[in-house]
Design a protein that fits this description.
The chain has 127 residues and is mostly beta strands. Helices cover 0% and strands 51% of the residues. The strands form two sheets. Strands 2, 4, 5, 6, 9, 10 and 11 form a seven-stranded mixed β-sheet that branches. It has a four-stranded antiparallel β-sheet with strand order 1-3-8-7, with no helix packed on it. Strand 4 and strand 5 form a beta hairpin. It is globular and about 40 Å long.
Amino acid sequence: QVQLVESGGGLVQAGGSLRLSCAASGRAFTGYAMGWFRQAPGKEREFVAAISRSGGTTYYANSVKGRFTISRDNAKNTVYLQMNSLKPEDTAVYYCAARPDISSIRAGARMGEYDYWGQGTQVTVSS
């Protein structure tokens, strides 16, 4: 079992920045690739970013490429999502998730690849 707890969400103006954190506990964090997803009201959950277990490979949704950066600190069992140049359409609940790192980084865009999910943190971007 892996337990995931997100933090760092909040209210920010358009153009601002936030950094989300996801703290993992339980089984060896370094054995898992990680991902961030988000779900806006009335919409399906969508992929945001993924990172390999080493942190050496990342993958982003086109909608956030160049604005968001995913990273991890394996010594702290934590994955981060730095969000810059935020837009109102980034408003959503953001979830982190963990999956065994046995497939390509692009597979990290598929929700079904993930075994463990956090409870989510709300990000609201005002215009």
